[in-house]
Amino acid sequence: MPFESPSRSSGPSAAQRRIEAMAAAARRRRRLQVALPWLIIIGTFLLWELVCRVFDIPPFILPAPSAIAQSMVKWWVPLLENSWQTLMTTLIGFALAIVFGLLLGVAIGSSTLLYHGLYPLLIAFNSVPKVAVVPILVIWFGIGTIPAVITAFLISFFPIVVNVATGIATVEPELRDVLRALGARPSDIIRKVGLPRAMPYFFASLKIAITVAFVGSIIAETVAANKGIGHLMMLASSRFDVPLVFAGLIVTGVMGVLMYVVAVAIENRTTGWAMRGQDSGQVSVAGV
Amino acid sequence: MERPFVEIDDVSMRYGGAEGTLALRGTSMRIAKGEFVAVVGPSGCGKSTLMRLVTGLWPCSAGSVIVAGKEVDGPLSMAGMAFQAPTMLPWRTILQNVMLPLEVVEPHRRRLRAERAMYEEKARRLLALVGLKGFEDKTPHQLSGGMQQRASLCRALIHDPELLMLDEPFGALDVFTREDLWVELQGVCNILKPTVILVTHDLKEAVFLADRVLIMSARPGRIIAERRVPFERPRSLEITYTQPFQQLVHDLREHISAARRGEEPPLAAPAVQEAPHAV
Known about the structure:
heterodimer; A: about 290 residues; mainly alpha; MetI-like fold; 2 domains; disordered C terminus; B: alpha/beta; Rossmann fold; six-stranded mixed beta sheet; 8 helices
């Protein structure tokens, strides 16, 4: 009876207590995990405020969070209007990037010929700094929303193409054989296997693409625009209103995080099958 | 006499141009309709190449492959295949995975929408036949490797293929699961009666399942011997312990050893040469 002796000496309730203690520890961990991002953000702002006050840093070098908050309250109408403009610009560019990124990714991923033919050009294109492209766009389309939309599109399109192409190109050769021996057309293989298989890659790329899309639209707005957060920040800095510049930065960061969260939510809903590792871990903890 | 279902005549296969590796050299074989043939041979002898040639996935460099009286010049569009890896699609349930061929093969492809219930019933019956009743709506990762392999067999059989190609389908499984699946595969084949080509390096498996065992030489591969398996069907696992069965396995083992010696010098004596399935 080697298995019974420990439980007999400490009693069955001791074992129960141990399991409950473990469950409580797991619950505490989970709560910490949820709270941690907020704690870190608040902590950063507190530290920032403290540094500004202790070293008496002038607001036009580094404004304290309190000064930024004041500026936000004071200028909330233009901040809201311009961030709405930037959000719309970014989302239109991002939507274009999704459409063209998917199309080109599928094409490149399913054809070795296209892959080898187009990849060098794509890489060259992605290496060009987008700031350098904006003046050209302004010459073509004039100052305004269109250059910003196109810049957001150009910058966020590459990660989508590369990821979708990878997902489609890495279909297992055995699976391809199974389907080909059944008389499947190449379009069947892409539809039944390639595309669903590429979805986790696609959503992973969306998380990157949405954040860089903000970079693209704001770059364009700082160079040539009459609306948008980028434009607002340029105006503010030309007036040495540094707290407002920082307010613009923070608003941009918040928008980026929000869009990222949306992308993650869509990813979890649609491609949960690819995340079984994390899922099963959570299930077992919740089951205790 | 009826014309053989599969006729392979003097087929050669070379990879990578004129200077490339010769994988198959002058291979010929005839397989009757409904026959179960196992192809065994030392590793790298071109067994898998042979399968891809027969199904038309690859064109052969020389010779001809005729299936059902028609020269093979492209993918067959009706062969069921199963490999060592189950290759289930993780985003589909087991039932949906098994029904995948029906979405591709004619004429099922056209009928599937209208007669979904009938096809689904068929898939469920097939799954029940290999002991997967109750797992139809699970996803592949909820199943063990052996269960996924069972589902993979069902996927290869769902469209009643006339030709079933099995490339070491049980290679990655433990001995007990493997033997269970032999019996199940035999049962399914008894009902559906497809023509089967099984590529394996497990001699016991070949003898247990096949009507005829073909032995291939080391690369470049060709058929060097064949053995008819005389045992009555259905065969039970008990038969693997009988003297005639083991004699046949031993006999095949000798051929394989000879085939290997023909190509490479013996490095050291195998530790358990007499064990029939120690391949």
